Amino acid sequence: MRTTPGLDQHQDRHAIQKPFEKIFARLAVVSPLTGRVMVVNAQRERHTVLTGLAMNGCNALEIAANAGHSSPESCQAYVDAGIDHFQRMERLVGEAFIPIADRFLGKVVREAKDRKAQQDPDAVLRDTNLTGVGSCEIGGCRAVEAGVAPVACYTCRKFRAWAEGPHEALLVNLLARQSEFIEAGHSEVAETRTATIVAITDLLEAIRQREAADG
What we know:
2 domains; DNA_brk_join_enz; Tyr recombinase domain-containing protein; two-stranded antiparallel ribbon; about 50% helix; DNA binding; Integrase-like_cat_sf; DNA recombination; 6 strands
């Protein structure tokens, strides 16, 4: 088994490449754009994962950390690609997308009554202070694996937000980061936070209405 110096027992990219290509050749995945079987390799999959991070709101520094790059400059292209994607979506669907994209789509539950969290502790989603904010209905997804949870979870239907969770503190942090991006001249990057900010605001209002109804 070929290995990379300093990474004993870990296969290098050359050793992974052929098995990876064989698997996708057998799957014969057809591109919805060309109608032809896709040519997939490990490098392409890497780009897909990093682009996905950008579309989930990660900045160049965060993407670089996940990619193992020493400089965030090499990852700015992924952020730009994410911005282009959002702009294309806006042009295509426009206002029709707003009622769906800018609302909290998950469920509001009490931590003590969250059966999913009780049955599967790994489904609990935590903020940077390791404080629980809710749980994932399906136990986890790529957002967790990519390290963008729980922020990305607020726009997901599978998120079970705890009514007593520190959502407002997370909102304040997001607003602060958005302001920093704007002040630094990165308004496009700042805009990628908007959907999550609106979703959390919507969640907080839902929690307030629920508490008012409960008396």
